[in-house]
Amino acid sequence: MGPMPTAAPPVSGSSPPPARPAPSVSPPARPRRATVTRRIGWTVAAVVSLAVAVLLSLAVGARGIAPSTVFDALLHGGDSPDAEVVRQMRVPRTVLGIMVGAALGLAGTALQGITRNPIADPGILGISQGASVGVVLAIAFAGVHTLTGYVWFAFGGAAVASVAVYAVASRGRGGATPVKLALGGAAINALLVSVTMAVLTTRAAAMDEFRFWNVGALAGRGSEIVGQVWPFLLVGVVLVLAVARGLDALALGEDVAKGLGQNVAAVRVVGGLGATVLTGVAVAAAGPIAFIGLAVPHIARAIVGSDHRWTLPMAAVTGPVMLLVADVVGRIVFPPSEVPAGVMTALIGVPFLVTLVRRKAVPA
User: Fold this and answer.
1) Best CA proximity match to 213, nearest among 137, 113, 105, 125
2) Which of 72, 280, 290, 331 sits in a 20 to 30 Å window from 129, CA-based?
3) Residue 53 vs residues 21, 93, 317: alpha-carbon distances, Å
4) Half-sphere exposure (Cβ direction) of 339: Cα atoms closer than 13 Å
5) Predicted confidence band at 361 (pLDDT cuts at 50, 70, 90)?
6) Rounded-to-10 torsion of CA 188, 293, 115, 176
7) Which percentage of the chain shows pLDDT scores above 70?
């Protein structure tokens, strides 16, 4: 058999054959799917926790009611004393707890995103204190002595306070930066505290009535309060959710956010307006309930990450869970008396947040 033919050597001066392009390798989609699946799972778990908290709120109290009786009262009515307690007293209280908890959770998440300050809450911009001033003025000078009357004054005070803070922070070079917002909020908050104390010391008759509202509670609020504030709650939710992508971009820095096509000023104005409306709703309806606006955003981020498209809905579910559980615990710790929900939120929430920080579960 003759020798095998060999390839001819390349001709001098001829160009080498073009190299084939390397096949493009797409990033694996499995980690992304796993993240989405995990977030969906935690969201479902949070919704289930909210359902359990609602059932506890309807069944537990100075008068214990069996869950079967609760469902029967909700689905079939009835004239028994237990059915009347569920429908007339506990349903409005529970609905209000869901609304206030969601409002404070969303407002705190939005404010922490706008200011890029992990300790921001609805009180940092003086919003809660502005509502307090509105109520004090209503009691002392306008002759308002009902919770339904307080709502409008508290809401107006919160709105005026937030506008004042933004006006102060937007002056000068750089506009309303996070640092200027925080400093302006601290200054306005101190001023409003002084105004509140001045009115209360000169109008002693208003002290007891204001103290009842200022402690922060869900007890004694009827369905008419829910009917007054739910339209504002809906507006605030829409405004905050509308800037979810903008808050994600803003977390990377103003320059990066602008490079990504975001209008930073619009994100801050719309998000701040939504947070103001939500805080005004919560404080007007239930008084200044502390800690939820601070803790819930950290809890939500620890569960589903920093993407505001997931963090905001999680905060809207986690806030009511925390508030309703605090309210239920406050009903049973010293029966037949009740500890206001505003006190219990701090007693329950502070250790939980400290645990998250110690385990480094709260993102920096």
Assistant:
1) 137
2) 331
3) 59, 13, 11
4) 18
5) very low
6) -30
7) 88
Q: For 89-145, give the DSSP string.
A: IIHHHHHHHHHHHHHHHHHHHHHHHHHT-TT--TTTTTHHHHHHHHHHHHHHHS---
Query: What gap in Å lies between CA 185 and CA 272, rounded to an integer?
Result: 13
The pLDDT tens digits of the residues spanning 93-120 come to 999 999 999 999 999 999 999 888 787 7
Residue spans per domain, the chain: 65-72+79-287
Residue with tokens 């009515």: 77
Q: Report which of residues 172 and 191 the model is more confident about.
A: 191
pLDDT at res. 244: 92
Tokens 């995990």 sit on residue: 38
Do 147 and 110 form a contact (C-beta atoms < 8 A)? no
The answer to whether the pTM exceeds 0.90 is no
Q: Are 277 and 124 contacting, i.e. CB atoms less than 8 angstroms apart?
A: no
Q: How far is CA 179 from CA 117, 125, 247, in A?
A: 9, 12, 17
Architecture of domain 65-72+79-287: Orthogonal Bundle (1.10)
| 353-357: long-range pairs with CB below 8 Å, 24+ | 353/294, 353/295, 353/298, 353/299, 356/298, 356/299, 356/302
CA–CA gap between residue 208 and residue 254 (Å, rounded): 46
Specify the pLDDT at position 100.
94
With a CB cutoff of 8 Å and minimum separation 6, the contacts of 189 are: 123, 124, 125, 126, 129
